[in-house]
Structure prediction request, 950 residues.
Amino acid sequence: MKKLWIPITGVVLLTLSGCSAGSSTGSSADSTITIGMIAPTQGAYAEIGKNITDGFQVAIDEVNANGGVAGGKQLAMATKDEGSSPQTATQAARDFTSNGVNLLGGLFSSADCAGVDPVVEQSPAILVTASCASDTLTGGISGTSPFKRTFGVAVRDQANAQALAEVMAQKFPNVTNYDAFGFDYSWGHETWQTYRDGLTAADVAVQVNSEQFVPLSASDFHSQVAAISGGLTGPVASRGIFLATFGAGTSGFLKQAQAYDLPSQVALIANSGEYYNVARSLNGQAPDVWNSYDYNWAAFNTTMNTQFVTDYGKIANGAKPVGWTYQGYLIGLSYAAAINKAGSGDPEAVRTALEGVSFDAPSGSLTMGAASHQLSVPSVISHTVGDSTSSDGVKVIETQVVPYSGK
Amino acid sequence: MTAKTLTVSHLEAWYGTAQALFGIDIAVAEREVVGLLGRNGAGKSTTFKAIMGIEARRLGTIVFQDREISRLRTETIARSGVAWVPPDRRIFPALSVRENLALAARARRQPLDVDRLVDAVPILERLLPRRGYQLSGGEKQAVAIARALAGKPRLLLLDEPTEGLSPLVVQQLHESILSLPAKFDVSIILAEQNLQFVLSLTSRVYVLDTGRMAHEGSSTEFANSTGLQHQLLSVASTSDSRSHADH
Amino acid sequence: MFGQIFAALVSGIATGMPLFIVASGLTLIYGVMRVLNFAHGAFFMIGAFLFYNVLGGVTGSISLLIVGLLIAALSVGAIGAVSEVAVFRRLYARDHTTTLLASYALLLTLDGLVQQIWGVSPRSQTQLPAFAGSFQILGVRVATYDVVLIGVGAVLAIGLTLLLQRTSFGQTTRAVAHDQTMARALGLHARGVQLAVFALGAALAGLAGGLISPLLSIDPSLAPTFVVQSFAIVIVGGLGSMGGALIAALLIGLLDSFAVTFFPGFAGFSLYIAVTLVLLLRPQGIFGAAFASREA
Ligand SMILES: Nc1ncnc2c1ncn2[C@@H]1O[C@H](COP(=O)(O)OP(=O)(O)OP(=O)(O)O)[C@@H](O)[C@H]1O
Ligand SMILES: [Mg+2]
Prediction:
């Protein structure tokens, strides 16, 4: 008896920590349509997951407050943990469909989507993904989605990098001397390659000083920062640093770069990938950074955007929405528009309706490509710097919207 | 009868489910040196471990200086004044000899009296600065006894102290052990294979046979009874038959 | 060329020292109890979060910094003590797999608790102004805080060595580490020593978390990252050897910084290359023996 309490305590603790993700299952009364959101709720990407689901929640709250969908039905969200592998993500999708939830959304990692998309293809469910913007998963370039039952709302990764290259080439034609730092997987390498090619195409004579790629899980970039710092050449006005990172990768690099006074020794730091959350986490100390991603709260002067920012602020202690929040929000808007068009929550009807559906969004009207299954979201270039006097520690110096370039 | 230092009654011990001691009794008086004899595997070491509360599960009563210790933790038993010198000596290799001694003294909250230890174990003097791993087998044995004495125990459990020692060193050890009861006011149980060594140091002997007390009596009586010695200590009949086959 | 080599050298030491600070507690715990504690990374992470919490993200003064570090170290030490009593004490006698699994379970539990307490948003601890920025020596830019970390690491290395070699606590610890049964048979309080060592090891992780936090994004990804590096250092250094851990940490730091400077393609693997080479050539690690069994 005496020995029993240890395993019991262990189990209780593990349960508390592990299974806290509330997963209300889709016991859909006729008046509600439940959408199953899959996003990380634990570990390193839990914040991303929360942003996605919060954005989605804001969308369905707005939709519900405006009378719901398909003649008064309410939208509801159920959530499951994406985990940190395609296996866990796939399991989450299976759990949803076996509970009768066949309208799915979310997913942060392209690797997870690569696991889930084929499974959804073989099921009665459909899926609108959040951040899975790798070219192999969408029809943004080819014009035809490889998956009939999967749709995407994120800007293609390479479209963001391309947009950033265009804007940087125009604003900093003399910055030619680049050090690159990125995550050591396909996204990091391709993003840097696209940016570089984009600069070259815009007649910038790019010279690559160094390229440093680090594992996605790394957080100590001491050696890389020191190597970049020690290898800087040419006049400051010609130097640029490109970051193909997000999250802890970006913030760890910037913090360690600041310890070496690196930002003051280059003309620009450019980053493709979600960044606003990083800038915010740096307590007003973020360096001057040019970023390209799907969204910046200050980029769109529309009523709908103001509404979105306000509504999200209400559930997030006044915080501004970031790219991931926006993706979750767009999933909600896509489903609402398609369900309205279909007149019901029947997955097959909604799938057909999603193809080619158009709706108003904070950036203006968006269309879901009928064959590409790709939403026509523009890229947003934001120029920000840390500012301890502003409410979230970030000052948006300027933004520039680069229109959707895909099919 | 003089005051008893240790009284072991009906001591049984198990390793897992295998029983190794089947209810043995031992009594040791103040400053008395008794022998514990028996063939390999008879249970001598197990008896010591059972007294110290090490490894084996035990049942029975062990009264040490009027205190029942059979349910205490090993460290508490040691602190109450029982010291154990295991057959493999177990000197801490990373520590110097002096540190080995200091540790034992400190554990029993005794000041370390090196002179007194050197007096009992003369070779200790030149070993003090050495590390445990730098000692020979005989030196380790000397240090192990000194370390046991450093905490000023009232009972010393010596397990096979002569094992692996040269005759000369055995002679030195003999002298050391002989002087201990008077010098340190300590009782000793001496477990040994070396019969002559035991008989010359002890007043009484206990003889174990497969976990049972097979004989108990004065050392002189046992010394004179080759029959008993043969019956209780000689190697088992299998090796007898082998020696027959050799002829 | 000279400049680059010198820069790589400095950055290697600056990379290695924080790793040593994290790994010192792990190797101490292994050296005494033969427990490879997966939860060490969580101890580190909690140290970083607590430090952040105490100082509210801003390091105002050096005395606040020290108070923050003390609180992080002591609190994580206390968490270590509780885990020792609740989990590890019962498992010392068991095989390595059981302890490893238990410590992994503890890692997950603490991870979960951290997420319950601090949520999922990454935090950032600003640098003390005096330690922010960099300066130049011999044409090489050196971060001020690196010098601080190198200093703290050196002090810790010396302090821990003195503690283990020169104090009675150290003697007792080494005795318990080498032969717990004999130590107890001499009357030493082995359990107390194990508890103290576990708490100290955890406190070192907490201290490291606080110390390194200004250079990191403070978020739940810290636990796994640092536990992998610490394990590598403990293996390369020789399980349980404090001097080995120091040398291994510096070696891994140097290997990393030279790889990054001269062979960027290998940079990500330098840790694994070091571990593999050591396991092939010297499976017992550089020093090869726990501090208890030899003079090391
Ligand atoms: N750790 C152990 N686990 C299981 N059985 C053991 C253990 N130690 C001893 N035994 C068994 O207990 C019995 C008594 O062994 P013990 O070591 O007490 O004998 P001994 O009289 O000291 O012998 P020796 O003269 O060879 O040292 C033997 O049968 C032995 O095999
Ligand atoms: Mg024996």
Observations:
- The longest helix of chain A spans residues 46-65.
- The CA atoms of residues 274 and 293 of chain A lie 6 Å apart.
